[in-house]
């Protein structure tokens, strides 16, 4: 294997790891439930 093939494999593996980490993060954030807006009644006028 030349150096360019090794670099391509390493960058591909890093890309897949980032994609999987992103999907896990999105699933965890989605698992928390529905996003509710902040209550307006507590804002100072």
From TrEMBL:
Q: Which UniProt keyword terms apply here?
A: Membrane, Transmembrane, Transmembrane helix
Transmembrane stretches in the record are 6-25
Lineage: superkingdom: Bacteria
Name under which the protein is recorded: Glucose-inhibited division protein A
To which species is this protein native?
A: Gomphosphaeria aponina SAG 52.96 = DSM 107014
